[in-house]
Amino acid sequence: MPGLDGAFLSIQSKNSHLHVAAVLILDPPEGKRSLFSPTTRYAQIRRVVEQRLHLAPPLRQRALEVPFGLHHPVWVDDPEFELDDHLRRDSLPTPGGRGELDDLVAEVMSRPLDPDRPLWEMVVVEGLADGQTALIAKLHHAILDGVSGASLLGAFLDLGPRARPIPFPTAPWEPEPLPGPATLLRQAATSLARQPEVALGALQRGLDALVEVAGHNRRLSTEGLAPPPAPFSAPRTSLNGNLSSRRRFATTTIPLDDAKLARAVLGGTVNDVLLAGVAGALRRLLERRGEVPDRPLVALVPVSTRPADATTSPGTPLGNHVSGMLISLPIDIDDPVQRLAIVTKSTAVAKEQERLTGGRLLADLAEVSPPVVASRAARWATGLGLFKRMPLCNVVVSGVLGPDFALWCAGSRVAALYPVGPVADGVGLNITAMTYRGSVHVGVLGCRRLVPDVAELAVLLDDALGELVGAALEMRGATG
Fold it and tell me: What distance, in Å, lies between the first and last C-alpha atoms of the chain?
């Protein structure tokens, strides 16, 4: 298992479950609304998953730890794999609205995955209003990142109501025997023998990157620009602290054309517009909590390190190819247009810094850190409350580019697709957005102890983005 994938297993804790999810809202099959019972819908979805499991081999593999945590875990076939251990049904209480579904998603995200089984589950949700069905697909971050997650999900989706031809395996799946402790230790020893060379290369790359970054920051200072925030420089807020095991979840949706209008008139990118909206929403949320913002918050924005021509089509290699940028969120600024301008400058300098480092610092650090060291360090930091006193960042904000065409699942059109990112020790809030068919679908996941008011935050985010769109309309009208 690559170091970065293994790190997501090593640093999780009993209250920090590093899994991600996608929530698909499925319309009733066209012209067949009255013919399909919930049992029939579940059977259809189950059949699709069962018939296409061979397209996603990691779904039948489990992570096997190396004895004593001397090296990263290995992926092995699960000889006891049963689909029904990972696929189940649930039903919403009346009236089956978005609030009831959000509560169920929060419950699903609060449950850890069984480490002795493949690290995923799907929940088929019945009882939605208008005859819709929901599918919650939850997988551990050790398996995938945003790009590869979209690829894996695509294995179970179609481009129309009729299922596409699927190449079936020529022989039934037969799991490979589990390796014994002696085999795992022997493989770990072989890999560890190369570790000094790997560590030396990582150290050299890290030093070169730091020299480049230092020079970059000096140039920024001479130009009157602020460098990106430093790690652990985020202000202390009520959003940060030790997590509980429970979650809250909420969603909002904005037209993609609105975000593009704000981008075209006010500047920046669609992601900059989202970040500026998050800054406006958090400003109001913290004000309502009695925390008067006097300096910017810090957002961690994941960045894909895959090649520019990487796609989200089935077949994209799984695993994590990500880095992260730290961005200033100017919650101390009241004017939404000015907030967007500051965010745009902050992301520009952060992207340049990320280019200088090559996006390898996190991966290199994870590669040379044995799991036993990483997990103990994470527990030690949590136990001492270091994440509360010195949070790495205040919030994680991520954007994933999805398809602009309709997807289908088991004969049903996917009406909406909401992403769900993880929260980690010290950072109780994750806001993840995904574009799909002309809309930006946003999932807001929060620790129930630190951010119980995620539903309110989702409304505030919608309002803050609306302010930017309104300002863009006014400016466009004023300029003719």
Answer: 57
